[in-house]
Amino acid sequence: MKLINKSNNKILADNLKIADNFFKRLIGLLGRKALDKGEGLHIIPCTSIHSFFMKFRFDAIFLNKNNEVVYLIQNMPAWHVSKICFSGYSVVELPPDVIKDTETSVGDVLEFLEQLGCSP
Question: Is the pTM for the entire model greater than 0.85?
Answer without folding.
Answer: yes
